[in-house]
Amino acid sequence: MSTGRTAPAAAPGRLGTVQDFLNTLHVERGTDLLDASATAYDWLPGDDLPVPGPRALDRLRALRRELRARCGDGTPDDDLLARLADHAPLRFAPAPDGTIRLAPAEDGHRGILATLLAIAYQAQRDGTWSRLKVCHHDDCRWVFYDHSRSRTATWCAMGICGNRTKVAAYRRRRAASS
């Protein structure tokens, strides 16, 4: 399901699934697709999943908070991540290309937690995780993928949040000089 905003800088491959998950929290609109079972069910990947109950929603929101913190939106809590990982069993499995990958050992919501953690782990190993960032514009906080060569992008899109930030700074300077 769409998170209600066009992502100007989408992550490649499976990391895009994690990016979509992190953007189920829409700071600018004040909406959260993981607030209720129905909206969470609409977002969840896979049609054969049960509607998430309160405990599953709590774990999904906690994982989202932890992964967002690891992208620069807050302070990571290693103990909480370890507890969440206890509910996300992983196993080694052959990948289509013949390599070995981590895969969920269970179905349902525990499998979703495991899948998201496995993707994040692989992204950390291959160096793409550090390109997943939180927009510096306080009203946005959208998670974007930094495609810049220098890996120094700070806004989800220059034409949206970069422009807002620069216009606000200009107005402050003008007001201060008046």
Describe the protein:
This protein is of the alpha+beta class and 178 residues long. It has one domain (15-177): Jann2411-like fold (Orthogonal Bundle), CATH 1.10.3300. It contains six helices and six strands, in the order H-E-E-H-H-H-E-E-H-E-E-H. It has helices at residues 15-22, 37-43, 54-69, 78-86, 108-126, 158-177; strands at residues 25-26, 31-32, 90-94, 100-104, 132-134, 143-145. A two-stranded antiparallel sheet has the order 1-2. A two-stranded antiparallel ribbon has the order 3-4. A hairpin with an 8-residue loop joins strand 5 (132-134) and strand 6. Helix 3 (54-69) runs parallel beside helix 5 (108-126).
Put the structure in a nutshell:
Helices cover 44% and strands 11% of the residues. It is of the alpha+beta class.
Any key phrases for this structure?
178 residues, alpha+beta, Jann2411-like fold, two-stranded antiparallel sheet, 6 helices, 44% helix, disordered N terminus
Main beta-sheet annotation: 2 strands, antiparallel
Low-confidence stretches: 1-5
* Beta strand count: 6
CATH topology: Jann2411-like fold
How much helicity do the residues have? 40-55%
Give the name of the CATH architecture: Orthogonal Bundle
How large is the radius of gyration? Answer: 18 Å
Question: For this structure, what is the CATH class?
Answer: Mainly Alpha
Kindly report the spatial arrangement of strands forming the biggest sheet.
Answer: 1-2
How many independent structural domains?
Answer: 1
Q: List the total number of helices.
A: 6
Oligomeric state of shown chains: single chain
- What distance separates the N and C termini? 48 Å
Mean residue pLDDT = 86
Series of H and E elements:
HEEHHHEEHEEH
What amount of the residues lies in strands? 5-15%
